[in-house]
Amino acid sequence: MADAVVAFQEWQSFRAGTGWAGLIQEQDRWIDTTRYSSAVVEAECPLISNCTLLIEGCDVQGGSFTTHTALTASTAGAIQLYLQRSAPYGSSDRLSSLIRWRIEGNAGAEWNVMFRLNLVLKS
Amino acid sequence: MATITNQQFQSSSSAQPGAPQFYSPVMRSEGQGQEVIKFQEWLELRGVSTTGDVIQPARQWIAGSAYPLFHLKCQVPYVSNCTLVLESSQTVEGPWTTAATIGSTGMILVALSSEGGMNKFSNYLRWRLNPAALEWGICFQIRAFPGKSVAEPVVGPMKV
Questions:
Q1: Which stretch of A49-58, A98-107, B62-71 has the lowest confidence by average pLDDT?
Q2: Three-state DSSP string of B13-36
Q3: Which of A100, B1, B54, B149 is most deeply packed, by most CB within 10 A?
Q4: Strand blocks (E) in B68-135
């Protein structure tokens, strides 16, 4: 299995008014990483306000999701996150079988975010 | 322009051999296994007072002559000083007539029918943004669920 780079999410911006609690990436865009041993998530987030951008993973459909990283206004910018399937890894650094993004908005205020995500997968 | 074919429901990954796969078990199963058309992916647009109407690109219009009924699920988390107009035409050239308008936030369900009795549409379907003469903005997504007739709605066969 060759290494691969996936455009996990092309440049996307969201804006929501008061009362909108958040958004989840559509299920058909989640990434199946089962054939890979490690991954690097490259996140670029030049604009984020009143919300949190979460990179999450789970191993079983319908299972609970683990937060791999959470970007907020104070951590915005460009980050890289290394995930691996084999130990040793931290509780949030284990590569899950499915990776997705989710936005948790501050429902009491207008929020907006602009971001792009790449995923480098290594076999 | 979008036509309603199975090709539209395939994953857009178009993966090369060995490339990672998107997890796509439900491309056709939003609702109860029914067909779904990604009429408009998430889109945020903003403009200033001098902006004219914004029209969906023609390649994304739905040519829905095979389906006399559509249910549209519109998610609109933000809208300010503009109206989202769903409009239809018998031909690509127009004239375009308004089938429905959306001017508020929320998850809005719109039923369109070519058979009368509901918001009327004919053959081609597209969206258009009609901004006010002010700074405006909108963030939205639209999914379309085609049905074959009013008597055979898109919710799928009823199990008894």
A1: B62-71
A2: CCCCCCCCCEECCCCCCHHHHCCC
A3: A100
A4: 69-80, 82-89, 97-102, 106-113, 119-120, 124-131
Helix (H, G, I), strand (E, B) or coil at B46: strand
Q: Contact B47/B136 with Cβ under 8 angstroms?
A: yes
* B2-3 and B62-63 beta bridge pairing: parallel
- Contact between A68 and A41 (Cβ < 8 Å): yes
Which of B23, B26, B105 comes nearest A32 by C-beta? B23
Interface test with A, best of B78, B80, B104, B136 (most A CBs within 10 A): B78
Using a CB–CB cut-off of 8 Å, the residues of A that contact B are 1-2, 4, 6, 12-17, 19-20, 23, 27-33, 35-36, 61, 98, 110, 112, 119, 121
Averaged pLDDT for residues A58-87: 85
Backbone angles phi, psi at A68, to 5 degrees: -85, -40
Amino acid making up residue B92: V
pLDDT digit string (tens) for B50-89?
668 999 999 899 887 777 788 899 999 999 999 999 998 8
Q: Is the pLDDT of residue A24 over 90?
A: yes
